[in-house]
Amino acid sequence: MDPRASLLLLLGYLAALATIPTGENLLLGILCSIPLALLFLARLPKVELLSQAGYVLPFSFAIAVVALLRGNKGQAVFFLLRSYISVLAVLIATKLVTTLELLRAMECLGVPRFLIIVTEFLLRYLQVLRQEAESMRLAALCRGGSHNRLIAAGTLGMLFVRSLERSTSIHNAMLARGFNGRLPRLHAMRWTLRDTAALCSGLALIAGLRWLL
Amino acid sequence: MMPLIRVTNLSYDYPDSPGTLREVSYTQDSGTSVALLGPNGSGKTTFALHLNGILQGEGEIEICGIRVEPATLEAVRRKVGFVFQSAENQLFLPTVLEDLMFGMLNQNVPVNEAKLRAEAMLESMHLASKANKNPFHLSAGEKRRAALAGVVLMKPEILILDEPTTFLDPPGIRELAGLLNSLPLTKLIITHDSQFALQTTQQAVFFEAGQIIASGPTQEILDRFGWN
Asked: Measured between alpha carbons, how far is residue A176 from residues B70, B76, B130, B150, B213 in Å?
């Protein structure tokens, strides 16, 4: 499926999920079942995705606490579930369509180029940061290092310096191979009749569930 | 015949290291292979980074008759292929195949053609089975070959390699030497490996303290400075 169609379907789904009135439990349940069904039908790493989606819960819990303090437990649960399923849907989308293709689709659909570039860099250099942190951790362990907060704080600055240097080297390598600020499209995007049919039927289903039920 | 590389009075200072390059002049003819030798910190890599415009110091640089300046960087980088010392930093896309395609796509080569050429190159580099693997999972030798492949696919006229034998075992070094010798390109090889320099280059220049202090046949330079 064309990444643009996938992105539009995802956005339609997220919009439907975000606008469900509190208390519409049946509707919430039906919409939540869509990504869960996709997760179990497609060959996706279920445990990995289900646990990764959980990373949003501490943040959404901070907001759900407001509803709890007002005595509205139902609203808090509603919010937590909705945020979890939203993130799960996005994670599933990034597994079915590569992140780069999703970014290309976003750019085609008018997302400002600046945001696209920043996201591309973030994705690329998060891995650099992780690798540098791991190599520093191993080096510290080999010299009898222990989990000490003071040491960890002190090395945080070094981590960023090392990552910056490595990122600069990577950037130079990209420039040397003609990088012009935009990661090239690796697979041509071709919109077909099948994409139109999938998009229309998908959006019709979501809209039907959301507004007609 | 006009030299392919012409550098005139190149000087460059890093912010914390003044005099990294001091009025370096250099020429290289087409089809030749030259070793850049010298102690660590003598300016070899800094010099090489000027040839594709990554660094821009004072002085004049001409690559294939094109003066290196901000307006000509795209054209210069089509002429100069640079294989960096760390192959890992050069492999930055999710799969080996995509990484090899990167340079060609930046040159507006159609996606299908880029893919075919990358696949053919992977075959010739004995990396066909690694096409869909993450580059980080390759061995040091495989990473080096993949990094080289990604650059060679851009069809440069000049190939610059910075310490290409780093992390390679002896068979890997021999294989790389054979590979380089089979490429009909003008080459500039920064190396501390005297055997590798002898196998792959005919001429050498010796850097010291930001200047080229000697040039000549590779064996002669190695003997003169005890670089064996």
From this structure: 14, 9, 24, 11, 28
- Interval A12-26: pLDDT, tens: 999 999 888 887 888
A113 in contact with chain B, both atoms CB, cutoff 8 A: no
Tallying the residues shown for chain B, one arrives at 228
Rg over CA atoms, chain A: 21
Q: Is A190 an interface residue toward B (CB < 8 Å)?
A: no
pTM: 0.73
Quote the domain boundaries for residue B204: 5-89+158-224
Task: Report yes or no on B220 lying in a domain.
Answer: yes
Which residue stretches of chain A have pLDDT < 50?
none
Chain B partners within 8 Å of A172 (Cβ): 49, 54, 84
For B103, the closest chain A residue by CA position comes to A177
**Stretch B150-172: mean pLDDT, rounded?**
92
- Please give the Cα distance from B112 to B123 (Å, whole number): 17
Residues of A in contact with B56 (CB under 8 A): none
Q: Which residues of B touch A169 (CB under 8 A)?
A: 84, 86, 89
Does residue A166 sit at the B interface (CB-CB below 8 Å)?
A: yes
- The domain locations on chain A are 3-105+190-212, 124-176
In this predicted structure, the answer to whether residue B123 has a pLDDT above a threshold of 70 is yes
Q: What is the pLDDT of residues A134-167, one digit of tens each?
A: 877 777 777 766 666 666 676 777 788 888 888 8
Q: What is the mean pLDDT of chain A?
A: 83
* Burial class of residue B158 in the structure, from the number of CB atoms within 10 Å of its CB (0-12 exposed, 13-18 middle, 19+ buried): buried
The count of structural domains within chain B is 1
Contact call for B111 and A173, based on CB within 8 A: no
How many helices (H) and strands (E) would you count in chain A?
A: 9, 0
Over residues B69-94, mean pLDDT: 89
Query: Between the CA of residue A109 and those of A5, A14, A105, A115, A130, what are the distances in Å?
Result: 10, 16, 6, 13, 31
- Residue B115 in domain: no
CATH code, domain carrying B32: 3.40.50.300
